[in-house]
Amino acid sequence: MNTLCHRHSCGAVAAKRLLQACQPCFIASRIAPRLPGLLVVARASKPAPTSKPQYQPTSAKDAIETATRVFKEQQDVDEAVRLYRTSLEMNPNEDEARAALYNLGCALAKQKKWAEASESIVRAINDYRLKLSVALKDEDLTQLRERREWIDALTQVKGGISRSTKVDLRTEAKAPFRLPRIILFSGLLGSAAIGLVIILFRLVKALQGGPGAPELNESLTNLGINSLAVAVLSYLLYRDVNQKQEAVRITTREELMGRLQVDLGNDRVLPLLKFRGQVRPVIVAGNRTFVEKAIKEADSQYINLRDRAVSVIPVIFESTPGEVDPEAKLRALKKEFQKEGRGFDDVAAAAKKAAAEAAEAKARAKMTVMGGLMDADKRWRLEPYSVDEWKAWILEQKEFAGLPANEPNCYIQVQLDGTVRSSGVGTPPWRQLVEDLPLLSDFRTRLMDGVGPQE
User: Fold this and answer.
1) In terms of Cα–Cα distance, which of 148, 152, 117 is closest to 135?
2) How far apart are the C-alpha atoms of 336 and 202, rounded to whole Å?
3) Is 420 helix (H, G, I), strand (E, B) or coil?
4) Pfam family of this protein, just one (predicted)?
5) Which residues are CB-neighbours of 313 under 8 A, at least 6 positions away?
6) What are phi and psi of 174, to 5 degrees?
C-alpha cells in the first residue's frame, strides 16, 4: 500500500512537472490557429497538389466540343475559356469561329468579365453573322444584359444605334416639330436670299436708268420686303438651331447620367437608365450629415413618395478635400467580414445565399428577354456604384445648372424618362414633390414624364 502510494505520488509529481514543461507548447497549440502568420506557415507546409495536365485539342472543332462539355457538365469555366481561346488560334472555319466566340462570351460572363464577354459576342455578331436575338434570349447572359458594358456594346453592333444617334433621337422626341421647322425655315431663307440677290441687280439697273430699266420705287419696295423676310427667317432659324444645340447638350448630360450605376447587392449592378419608366430618382448629394438628415425628413411623406415611384440615391461627399469619412473604414471592414463570412456560421450563410439565389432566379424567369427590373429593385434607397463617377457627374451638373459651387449640398430630381426635372441647393422639397408629381398609375404621368421605350 505504501509502495503504491509512493508510486502514485511520484507519478503525480512527474505528471505535474511534465505538464508545466509542456504548458507553453500546449498554449501555443491552442493559439496558433488564430494567428495569421502561423496559418500561412501551416498552409505552406502542406504539399502542393499535383497539377492536372491540360488537355491539348487536335482541332478547333475538338477544342469547342471539349470546352462546351467541360463548361456544361464539369462547371470548369476557367478550362472552358482556355479551350475556346485555343480554338480561335487553330484556324477555325466561320461556323466554328462563331460558336467559339459566342460560347467564350457566355463563359466570360460567368467569370463576371463583362467587358470581355460583350466584346466577344459583338465580334461573333459583326464578323461571323451571329443573330443578335440569340444573345438576347440566352439565360446564360441574363446578368450580362443588365450591365452597362452590354448596353455600350450594342452601340457597336452592325445596324445598332450609336450614342450620338440616340442623343439626336431623344432630342427630337422632346421637340418633335423643331426639325421640320428648321427644314422649312432653311428652304424659305434660301428662296428669300436668292430673291434678294435678284432684286439687288434690278435695283442697280434702276439706279443706272436708261430704256427698259425697272422702276426705282418698285425695286426699293421689293428690296425692303425681301430684306425683312431674310432677317425674320434668319432669326427663326438661328433660334431653333441654338435651341437644338442646347437640347443636345442637355440630353448628352442625361445620357451620361443614365450610364451611372446602382448597386442592388447580390452581384447585381444596373445602370440608371434601366430604371427609366419605373422610378423617379432623387439624387441627394453632400456631406453625410446633410444626406442622412434630408432622407430622414422624407419619412413623413414616405408613403406618398413611394406611390409616385420616388427613390433616393444618396451620394456622400467628404466635408473637405482630402478628408476621409470617419465611418468609411468601419463600413469597409464590415463589408469585408460579411464577404468572407467571418463571425457567421458557414452552413447557415451558404444556405441563406442559396435561398437568395433561388428566389432571384425565380424572379428573373418573369423578366423580359431584354432585361428589366424586379419589384424588389424599385426600393426606396438605391446605393450608387462607383461613387467617384457619381461625384464627377454631380459636380459637372451643378456647373451646368448654374448652382453655386460653394454650396456642397444639393439635390437633383429626375423624371421617369431620365430627364432632369429640377435641381437646387439644400434639402429636396419633399412636400412640393408630392403635390407636383402625379401617381405612377395616373394618366398624367405619361404626359408629364414623356416615358419612352426602355433601352
Assistant:
1) 117
2) 85
3) strand
4) DUF3493
5) 262, 281, 282, 283, 284, 381, 382, 383, 384, 390
6) -75, -30
Angle between helices 94-110 and 114-128 in degrees, nearest 10: 160
Lowest mean pLDDT among 7-11, 226-230, 374-378: 7-11
Distance linking the first and last C-alpha atoms of the chain? 95
Residue 370 phi, psi dihedral angles, 5° rounding: -80, -10
Q: Quickly count: other Cβ atoms within 10 Å of residue 227's Cβ.
A: 14
Listed as own residue / partner, the contacts of 350-356 with beta carbons closer than 8 Å and 24 or more positions apart are 356/266
Q: Select the highest-mean-pLDDT range: 12-21, 45-54, 109-118, 216-225.
A: 109-118
CB 124 within 8 A of CB 130: yes
pTM passes above 0.85: no
The arithmetic mean of pLDDT across residues 68-83, rounded, is 91
The string of pLDDT tens digits covering residues 325-346 is: 545 554 554 555 444 444 444 4
Cα–Cα distance, 98 to 127 (Å, whole number): 8
All three cell numbers of 139: 439565360
The 10s digit of each residue's pLDDT in 105-134 is 999 999 999 999 999 999 999 999 999 989
Report the C-alpha gap between 142 and 144 in whole angstroms. 5
In three-state form (DSSP H/G/I as H, E/B as E, the rest C), the secondary structure along 245-274 is HHHHHHHHHHHHHHHCEEEEECCEEEEHHH
